[in-house]
Structure formats: C-alpha cells, structure tokens
Amino acid sequence: LKTIGFWGSMFLLCNNICGPGMVQIPCMYQQAGWLFPTLGFLLVAALSYMASLYLARAVAWMPGNHNYARRIEIAA
What we know:
Layout: H1 5-18, H2 25-32, H3 35-60
C-alpha cells in the first residue's frame, strides 16, 4: 500500500464511502438538497481520514517498525 499515493487513496476512500449506496445518492440529493448531503460526505471523509491516521500511527509504534519497514497485520 506504500505505492497508492494521495489521489489513489482519496479515490479508494470515496469508493468505500459512496459505493454501496451509489444508487440512492441522486434521490437523496433531490429530497434533501445539496448542502446537507455534501456536508455529511465531507464529515465522513474527515472522520475516515483521522481514523486511518490513528491506525498508521499504531502500526508505526510497533517495535522495530518506525519507518514501516515490516508488514504488520492487526486482527481482533
């Protein structure tokens, strides 16, 4: 995942946010207007961004993985 880059990760994030409900988005914008759905998407995107930063920080804090040299898998 080191080679995805900024724009690749942004497109993947938008796909994961919008993918399952893509067929309902036009109806939602028609019924709710443009402001509130757009703000909702931006809020979810910001929260996803913050969660991914916390996850990356947790992986970097693993012993011997400061520069992401090792592959770390986090499982429940």
